[in-house]
């Protein structure tokens, strides 16, 4: 089960960086990411809205997986978000800077799909890199 759940998280990030065409197979209809801004709908629609907003500010996005830990219905993913700041994001005009944002996500799996997520990352570092 642990390896299956880890593969599901890898697929989530692959979907997030390649257009989200198969996101319905990855997240539940009630999926909630507790990091997403308020007002986004649950499920695939909210995931699409969030990553479309990210895609408006960044290009060449990729996720570098450092390591994952899985226990029961939870998966912790330590990764680095790498992208080029090519569009306005959080009110910051683009300079084309390459940004690297280490982060940790915890996912809860239910019924073979991702049901919940929580993230920890240093947004101050992201904003510094965007302004450099």
Written account of the structure:
The model has no long low-confidence stretch (mean pLDDT 97). With 132 residues, the protein is an alpha+beta fold. The chain has a single domain (2-131), classed as Nuclear Transport Factor 2, Chain: A (Roll). The protein has helices at 2-17, 43-57, 123-131; strands at residues 27-33, 58-71, 74-85, 98-110, 113-121. It has a five-stranded mixed beta sheet. It contains three helices and five strands. The N and C termini lie far apart (43 Å).
Key traits:
single chain; 132 residues; alpha+beta; Nuclear Transport Factor 2, Chain: A; five-stranded mixed beta sheet; globular
Average pLDDT, rounded to a whole number, is 97
Low-confidence stretches: none
Q: What is the H/E order?
A: HEHEEEEH
- The number of helices is 3
The proportion of residues forming helix, as a percent range, comes to 25-40%
Query: Which structural class should the secondary elements be placed in?
Result: alpha+beta
Question: Beta-sheet strand percentage?
Answer: 35-45%
Quick structural gist:
It contains 3 helices and 5 strands, in the order H-E-H-E-E-E-E-H.
What's the structural blueprint in terms of helices and strands?
Elements: H1 2-17, E1 27-33, H2 43-57, E2 58-71, E3 74-85, E4 98-110, E5 113-121, H3 123-131
